[in-house]
C-alpha cells in the first residue's frame, strides 16, 4: 500500500526517479534517467559515472569517482534503501551550464 501511495505521489508531482546501473563496462548508448557506474562491481571499486544530462540537452556527462585524481565525486549507496547520492554537486561550466545535486536517487536543481 505504501508503495502504491508513493508511486501515485511521484506520478502526480512528475518527479522522475533515476536509476543506478552498475556495470563492468559502459554501454554504447545511454538511456535517460539512468546513472551508469563503471568499475569493479565485486569489490565495489567504482571508476567513472556517465549519464545523459538531466536538463534535456542530450549531452553525456562523465564524473570521475576515483578520489586520487581530482576533481572527483564520491558515490554513496544506501544499502537499506538502495538510494544513491553524489557529492559534491554537479556543475557544468559549458553549454547548458546545469547545476544540480543527485541526492536520494533524485535530481535537485540549484538556482544560481
Ligand atoms: Zn544539459
Describe the structure.
The structure is a single chain. The chain has 112 residues and is mainly β. The protein has 1 helix and 9 strands. Strands 1-2-3-4 form a 4-stranded mixed beta sheet, with no helix packed on it. Strands 7-8-9 form a 3-stranded antiparallel beta sheet, with no helix packed on it. It has one domain. A hairpin with a 6-residue loop joins strand 5 and strand 6 (84-87). The N and C termini lie far apart (39 Å). The structure holds zinc ion. Pfam families: BubE.
* Total number of helices: 1
Largest beta-sheet details: 4 strands, mixed
What is the radius of gyration computed over CA atoms, rounded to a whole number of angstroms?
Answer: 15 Å
**pLDDT averaged residue by residue:** 90
The helix fraction, in percent, is 10-25%
Shape: globular
Describe the secondary structure blueprint for this structure:
Blueprint: H1 2-13, E1 19-23, E2 34-40, E3 45-52, E4 60-64, E5 74-77, E6 84-87, E7 90-91, E8 99-103, E9 106-109
Parallel strand pairs: 1-2
Antiparallel strand pairs: 2-3, 3-4, 5-6, 7-8, 8-9
The protein binds zinc ion (ZN).
Which short descriptors sum up this protein?
single chain; 112 residues; mainly beta; 4-stranded mixed beta sheet; 3-stranded antiparallel beta sheet; 9 strands; 11% helix; DUF6527
Amino acid at each position: 500500500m505504501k508503495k502504491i501511495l508513493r508511486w501515485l505521489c511521484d506520478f502526480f508531482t512528475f518527479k522522475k526517479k533515476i536509476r543506478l546501473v552498475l556495470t563492468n563496462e559502459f554501454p554504447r548508448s545511454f538511456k535517460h534517467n539512468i546513472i551508469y557506474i563503471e568499475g569493479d562491481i565485486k569489490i565495489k571499486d567504482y571508476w567513472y559515472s556517465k549519464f545523459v544530462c538531466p536538463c534535456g540537452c542530450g549531452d553525456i556527462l562523465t564524473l570521475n569517482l576515483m578520489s586520487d585524481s581530482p576533481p572527483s565525486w564520491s558515490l554513496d549507496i544506501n544499502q537499506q534503501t538502495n538510494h544513491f547520492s553524489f557529492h559534491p554537486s554537479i556543475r557544468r561550466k559549458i553549454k547548458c551550464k546545469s547545476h544540480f545535486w543527485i541526492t536520494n536517487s533524485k535530481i535537485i536543481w540549484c538556482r544560481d
